[in-house]
Amino acid sequence: NYLSANCVSDYLIVTANYDCLMEKALDALNVPFAAVTMLRSDGKIHVRFCDTLSNLKDQNPPTYPNHFTLQRRNPLVLLYKIHACLHEQYQSSQDSVVISDEDYVRYLSRMADNNGVVPAAVKTIMSRKPCLFLGYSLNDWNVRSIFQKITETRGDDFDVKDYSVTFRLSRFEEAYCERKKIDVLKTDLASFVKLVEAKRPTAA
């Protein structure tokens, strides 16, 4: 597998989806991953490793977001599920699924407290790498609030562009992307994937 063989640093995926399709896709490609999400029951970040890294669970107990670092020896995919996860491991009383207006307000209010919402390990990666928005609407204030938090940590010498792949933009999104200097690739995701596949190096 190209990703697992050539990855020299952690690869970050941020998703608002609750399902586990991303984890299944990574498993199918034999790509090591750690899925992290915050539970409503304790406000801490919980980690769920792929089967090949299950031995790391005890080294990574639940921790408040602002203090969360990932203990491991080799690079992996860090999958941050911002709106929680419906994996069977989590009971309904533990979830932090963000669906209702009240859930969104609670989520946003936690951004301002001392424990935070975005895991420190996620902020570290995002502060030094560009963002590629796939399937996100930048009309979503929750996505914009996280992006704002991340860009605030970037140094003045950060000069790598962020990109958004979308078929169409609202007038608000166009203005937002221009203000935030996000380059827009106006295409559907299926066409974008084909272009990426065509550019991917082939095995010798």
Give your account of this protein's structure.
- The chain has 204 residues and is an alpha/beta fold.
- The chain is built from seven helices and seven strands.
- It has helices at residues 2-6, 21-28, 101-110, 120-128, 141-151, 171-180, 189-199; strands spanning 11-15, 33-38, 45-49, 77-81, 132-134, 162-166, 182-186.
- The strands form two sheets. The protein has a four-stranded mixed beta sheet with strand order 1-4-2-3, with helices on both faces. A three-stranded parallel beta sheet has the order 5-6-7, with helices on one face.
- The radius of gyration is 17 Å and the shape is globular.
- The two termini are 12 Å apart.
Number of helices: 7
User: What distance separates the N and C termini?
Assistant: 12 Å
Query: SS-based structural class?
Result: alpha/beta
Strand count? 7
In spatial order, strands of the major sheet run 1-4-2-3
How would you characterize the largest beta sheet? Answer: 4 strands, mixed
Shape: globular
Secondary structure: elements and pairs:
Elements: H1 2-6, E1 11-15, H2 21-28, E2 33-38, E3 45-49, E4 77-81, H3 101-110, H4 120-128, E5 132-134, H5 141-151, E6 162-166, H6 171-180, E7 182-186, H7 189-199
Parallel strand pairs: 1-4, 2-4, 5-6, 6-7
Antiparallel strand pairs: 2-3
Compose a concise summary of this entry.
This protein is α/β, with parallel strands linked by helices and 204 residues long.
Key terms for this structure?
four-stranded mixed beta sheet, alpha/beta, globular, three-stranded parallel beta sheet, 204 residues
